[in-house]
Sequence to fold (481 residues):
Amino acid sequence: MKKRPTVGEILQAKGVSRRGFLKYCATTASILALPPSMIPRIAEAIENARRPSVIWLSFQECTGCTESLTRSASPTVEGLIFDAISLDYHHTLQAAAGDQAEAARHAAMKENDGNYLVLVDGSIPLGNPGFSTIAGISNVDMLKETVAGAAAVVAIGSCAAFGGIPGADPNPTGAVSVTDLVKDKPVINVPGCPPIPMVMTAVLTQFLTFGQLPALDKFGRPLAFYGQTIHDRCYRRPFYEQGKFAKTFDDEGAKAGWCLYKLGCKGPTTYNACATTKWNSGTSFPIEAGHPCLGCSEPNFWDDGGFYEPLSTGHFDSGEKLAGAAAAGVALGAVAAAAGRRRQAKFMKEG
Amino acid sequence: MTTPQEVQRPTSPFHGNVRPILNEVLHALDKLLGTNESTTIDLASLPFGPGELEHLEALLGKGELSAELDALGTSSIRETAYPGVWWLEHRNAFDEVVGRYLEITRTPEILSSQDADIVAGRAHLEDQFE
Ligand code: SF4
Ligand code: SF4
Fold:
């Protein structure tokens, strides 16, 4: 196997100065949700990292996840896709088609056996293999074949991670998630409809930087981004604590920016990073635009009651969800999850 | 449908997310003066409501020194009205902000000439004599 250049070598060849590199490392730390004190370690790791081969498989999906990633504003994305990773197969983005594309996939698998990453967006239909095929190969066969020599699999978006829209009741195609099929490889779930681009980038960067997979929660989601609820980090939280709620989308509470809990906000039971990472190059996130969180990064959110019904109407239907709600209940109560939040509450009381 | 009887408008862009940061800056300045330890606060990791980031920026104001860096997109490095408190903003090649930090330090590291660049520059200068 020919030795792939290190990221340090690539940047140097491109004439990127050390200062530019430090900047790259600082934003990488930010993307990985690591403290800035980690920047020197990141610099060392990135300099010596060799770019991994990535094979991206798109199954029953809407291409929203690819759209989200390619619109990512992180400096690493133009870097990541074209420099820091070697995207060897992605049937939406690659120029090759048909047999040529399949040949590229097989070549990447052979050349990087045991070391490549497989990214999957979309769910896999088991009802009839003919429901979704690529180059005449059914999704389930392509997944099994490609994953066999992979180092790890990343399920991008709620469809790949949990079944998503195709898997919603009545699930006409018999759609399943990647974890339903892949049992012998590490699988990282990056759910969201679509996932935050920076979170997708971060998982790849983490692998690239430290050669390791991130710490995961019980649903296989990276804790750095899915460790806290939207509610834990929501800027409207002070209104929640004061019991100030918008009751319709056009009342004075809505205009004053009060909490959207009574309009169905699923922030309290939804683990995702929207409240801090935000969307569209950090512009804002749905709650900031006045719309409740739909809970799009949680399993089966499509079937989980009405989007505009408050959580308190008790629409939970599974034991799993109830457990999640109980855990979130702790965060809802007197104990604010983050230390920063505690400080903030104190300030608000005093100030 | 009932007509709201009491109308409450926000009195400021504050949702209470700015003061804790100012407090953190205060502690960081004590650390800088006491043990010469620098602190970096990653503003992207903190919750801000509409207008709060701009409010924080306005509160910290402008100091005596500002610099622009042109590497992988531009960056601005500017001392706030509070000496030792620096506002750093990194942009990518598309001029989108990709990182925003408060550095509580004497000089942000990124302002210093870096050894690797000095070595490369020196070699380049030497070439001029050939
Ligand atoms: S319920 Fe929703 S709007 Fe209200 S504080 Fe929680 S996340 Fe924010
Ligand atoms: S705010 Fe909620 S529904 Fe909206 S993108 Fe974030 S997790 Fe999904």
